[in-house]
């Protein structure tokens, strides 16, 4: 089977085809063996942030600030997303990936900003990057889009994405307060109400030699915040103090990481986190991510309130959000390589 056929059928199709006698060389990474460090990941109790006593809210904001400064990552429990809806979203995602390849190809998407795109790897195998991952990417805000199959995809995803925005907006209020600003500070600076939201479904099928491949290589996300939930299969690792920390979240929690544009806006006070995804030989991992960012046409630069010429000079040059995404998505993923291009 040639590479073109492999990429057209996706990783799921490749695994289920019976043709997979060995790992295709295009998918082999030189090494993904890294030093692992088991650490307790910061956890935010959402109910204390939004409905707790003044003291509980203050403590929750402190936890968020410390997590953003030291990790760029935290888990969220006791949030407002119904468990029923999280289960339904995973179910509808599984059924999308179970569609026949020709049905999924209706949404293959040729252009970066097409409303709906599905494929394999990273943008269908950009350059030399071939990843053990199938994906579906849907722009859901400010204009909502959805695949026409499965039939209930639109209704389920529209409800889910609206509630995910609600969670993200409350977290951004806490982050704003942790910066010493009023709670709607980031909302106003990033025009969150009119901002972009991208729904990303990732499928990581089991691999007979998981040590040879990567689900996603080390990278940081564009945007402000990414909220991610998963099925009961782990695989996310975050880079903390030079060590890879495996993330093992409690059921029905959200995994939240700060993006490059949070780092730019805060002038480096809160850094985006580098993370990667490893796969396994036994089970399929599935994740549902919503990426939250400013409007595509917004130019994002360090906030004036967080810059001073003596102690905190500006560290990043301004760039239109759309141009930043295009820069990241048309080059190979490698740590913070895209963010490095806008450093002063």
TrEMBL record:
Family: Belongs to the iron/ascorbate-dependent oxidoreductase family.
Record protein name field: Fe2OG dioxygenase domain-containing protein
SUPFAM superfamilies per the UniProt record, alphabetical: Clavaminate synthase-like
Pfam families referenced in this protein's UniProt entry, alphabetically: 2OG-FeII_Oxy, DIOX_N
Fe2OG dioxygenase domain mapped to chain residues: 194-294
Classification via PANTHER family: OXOGLUTARATE/IRON-DEPENDENT DIOXYGENASE
The entry's keywords: Iron, Metal-binding, Oxidoreductase
The UniProt record lists the keyword Repeat: no
Lineage: Eukaryota, Viridiplantae, Streptophyta, Embryophyta, Tracheophyta
Gene3D superfamilies: B-lactam Antibiotic, Isopenicillin N Synthase, Chain (2.60.120.330)
Organism expressing this protein natively: Vitis vinifera
UniProt xrefs under InterPro entries: DIOX_N, IPNS-like_FE2OG_OXY, IPNS-like_sf, Oxoglu/Fe-dep_dioxygenase_dom, Plant_2OG-oxidoreductases
């Amino acid at each position: 089977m040639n590479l073109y056929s492999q990429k057209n059928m996706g990783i799921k199709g490749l695994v289920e085809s019976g043709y997979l006698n060995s790992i295709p060389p295009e998918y082999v990474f030189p090494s993904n063996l890294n030093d692992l460090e088991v650490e307790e990941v910061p956890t935010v109790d959402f109910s204390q942030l939004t409905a707790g006593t003044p003291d509980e809210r203050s403590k929750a904001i402190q936890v968020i600030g410390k997590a953003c400064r030291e990790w760029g990552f935290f888990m969220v429990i006791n949030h407002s997303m119904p468990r029923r809806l999280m289960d339904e979203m995973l179910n509808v995602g599984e059924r999308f990936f179970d569609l026949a390849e020709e049905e999924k190809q209706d949404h293959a998407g040729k252009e970066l900003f097409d409303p709906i795109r599905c494929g394999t790897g990273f943008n269908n195998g950009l350059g030399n990057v071939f990843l053990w991952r199938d994906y579906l990417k849907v722009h859901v805000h400010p204009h909502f889009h959805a695949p026409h199959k499965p039939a209930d995809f639109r209704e389920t995803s529209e409800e889910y994405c609206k509630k995910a925005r609600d969670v993200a907006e409350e977290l951004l209020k806490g982050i704003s307060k942790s910066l010493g600003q009023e709670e709607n500070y980031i909302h106003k600076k990033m025009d969150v109400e009119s901002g972009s939201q991208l729904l990303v479904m990732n499928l990581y099928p089991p691999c007979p030699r998981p040590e040879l491949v990567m689900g996603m290589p080390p990278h940081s996300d564009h945007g402000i915040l990414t909220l991610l939930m998963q099925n009961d299969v782990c695989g996310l690792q975050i880079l903390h103090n030079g060590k890879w920390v495996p993330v093992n979240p409690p059921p029905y929690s959200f995994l939240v990481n700060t993006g490059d544009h949070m780092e730019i806006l805060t002038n480096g006070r809160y850094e985006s986190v580098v993370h990667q995804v490893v796969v396994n030989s036994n089970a399929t991992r599935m994740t549902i991510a919503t990426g939250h960012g400013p409007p595509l046409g917004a130019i994002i630069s360090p906030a004036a309130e967080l810059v001073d010429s003596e102690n905190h000079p500006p560290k990043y040059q301004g760039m239109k959000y759309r141009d930043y995404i295009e820069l990241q998505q048309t080059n190979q993923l490698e740590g913070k390589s895209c963010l490095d291009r806008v450093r002063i």
